[in-house]
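Long-time lurker. I teach an intro course on protein structure, and each term I like to show students one example going from raw sequence to a predicted 3D structure in token notation. This year I'd like something fresh instead of my usual example. Would anyone be willing to generate the tokens for the chain below so I can use it in lecture? Attribution to the forum is fine with me.
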Amino acid sequence: PSHDIAGEVNWDESGLADNKERKIERVLKTGQSVLVQVTKDPIGQKGARLTSQISLPGRYLVYVPGGGMSGISRRLPESERTRLKDILKGLITDDEGVIVRTAAEGASDEELTRDVVRLKAQWDDIKKKSESSSTNAPTLLYGEPDLAIRVIRDIFNEDFRKLTVQGGNIVTGK
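-- Reply from a regular --
Happy to contribute to a lecture. Here you go:
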């Protein structure tokens, strides 16, 4: 196993986070089922890049169910960073993490709560599917929505007045 692959192991979950000798063979065995996320699609002769450090993107934040990682975009002013930290304290546990996006600036408690609740439910669904899978064959447990949905989720905000879909249907903002 290469050093690059070992860098994608969730060491906290493995119980070897503080161990100086982080060897992938101490965590993974041949034939073992593992839950991974594709971080880069295969290109040409190169296979997909995988990680066991799962993260789920939302509109205002990225949810990290394994915890160990939390942060807020440095592009936000300090007062806004503090406000967001205070809101999120009540929404996530010590076993969870979040990376707050720049899009969270000015988001209400309700909007952030809705994002966290949706992402936690998504994670619960993924976890249930992974535990109930009776096959050892690789199985897709969750796939990102198509490009149009991702663009709306990640980019569409109050700076836009309308979104025209297929030239005719109009979806308006707030």
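Some talking points for your students: Residues 134 and 164 are 44 Å apart (CA to CA). The mean pLDDT is 82.
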